[in-house]
Amino acid sequence: MRRSSGGGIIGEAAIETCKLTKTFASPRGLPDLLRRRPSAGGVTPVDGVDLLIRKGEVFGILGPNGAGKTTLIKILCTLILPTAGRAKVNGYDVERESGRVRESIGLVTTDERSFYWRLTGRENLEFFASLHNFYSDEARDVVDDLLGVVDLKYAADERFLTYSAGMKQRMAIARGLLNDPAVLFMDEPTRSLDPGAAQGLRDFIKGEIVRERGKTIFISTHNLEEAEELCDRMAIFDDGRIKVIGSPADLKASLGDGSKLSDVFLHYTGKKFEERGGAGGAAPGFRQDRRGFPHRVGGLGRRRGGV
Ligand SMILES: Nc1ncnc2c1ncn2[C@@H]1O[C@H](COP(=O)(O)OP(=O)(O)OP(=O)(O)O)[C@@H](O)[C@H]1O
C-alpha cells in the first residue's frame, strides 16, 4: 500500500483500519452510580482490528452471532466512535472527517423499520433523497433510475407495507445507492430471505452493483455460501478479532484439497460454524411472490392500513 507522508491513504485503499478497538462498558448498578464508581468490565466486540480493503473489492466479514461484525460496520459508517485506534474510509478519518465519510458511503441494513410503511416505495426513496439534499426534480430522476436498477419499478407506487422481504431488501439497497457512494456497506443483506430470494439478491449484487457499478463492497455475513460466492477476499472474525484474511479459494487451499470454508472457520476459531437459524430455511408465514421473492401472508405485511 502507498501512503502519504502523514500516514493518510492515497491510491487504491477504500478502507483502512489500524488497531481499531471498541469497548462497551458494562452498565453500572445503582450503588455504583450513587458512589460515582466507574463500571467494571465490559465487552470489546472490535479488538485491535487492522484492515486494508482496496477500491473495487468485495470484502466479506464472516463471523458467528455476537462476533462484532455490526459494531465494526457502525464504526466505519461513523454511527459510533471507536475507543482506540483509527479508521479511514475513502481516505477520510471516521472521527475527524465523519461528514465526508458519510457523503461517500451507503449503508444497507436489514432493518426494514427504518422505512415508512404507509408510503410507497417511490415516496420512501424520494424522502431519503431529500435527506441527501437532492432538489425534487433531481430526486425524482435518481429515484426512478434506482427503482429500475433494483427491478422494483413495477411496484414503485405500492405501499412499502405490501412488499415482500426480498423487495424490502432491494429497497434498502436502492436507498444505500442514492448518493452514488464509492463504498457500500451491507450488514447481512440476505438475513431474512429464503434460499431462492437470497440467491436472487446475491446475483443482483454481483451483476448490478459490482460488475455494472464497480462499487467497493464491505459485507458482513453469517452465511458461508454467500461469503464464498460474493467475496474477492474475506476475513474470519470472532471475539472482535480477525483470525485470518484471504480469498475463499486461498483459505480453503491453505488447509489442503477438499477443504471447505466451514473447515477453515473451525481451524482458525476452534468453533464449529453454525449457520444462522431461519436464514437458510423457508420462513414461516411467507410464500413466493410472482418474481420468486418471499411474500408475507397474513401478518403485518397484509394488514390493511396498520404497521
Ligand atoms: N450498544 C451496545 N452496548 C453494549 N454492548 C453492545 C452494544 N452493541 C453491541 N454490543 C455487544 O457487542 C457484541 C457484538 O455485537 P455485534 O452486534 O457487533 O455482533 P455481530 O457479529 O454483528 O452479531 P450478529 O451476527 O448477532 O448480528 C455483543 O456481545 C453485543 O451484545
What gyration radius follows from the Cα positions, in whole Å?
A: 20 Å
Biggest sheet descriptor: 6 strands, mixed
The level 1 CATH classification is: Alpha Beta
User: For the terminal residues, how far apart are their CA atoms?
Assistant: 49 Å
What is the share of helical residues? 25-40%
Which term fits the overall shape? globular
Number of helices: 10
CATH architecture tag? 3-Layer(aba) Sandwich
Poorly predicted sequence stretches spanning 5 or more consecutive residues: 1-10, 278-307
Whole-number total of structural domains = 1
List the ions, cofactors and other small molecules found in this model.
adenosine-5'-triphosphate
> Which fold name corresponds to the CATH topology?
Rossmann fold
Strand content: 15-25%
Instruction: Enumerate the strands of the largest sheet in spatial order, edge to edge or round the barrel.
Output: 6-7-8-3-9-10
**CATH superfamily, called what?**
P-loop containing nucleotide triphosphate hydrolases
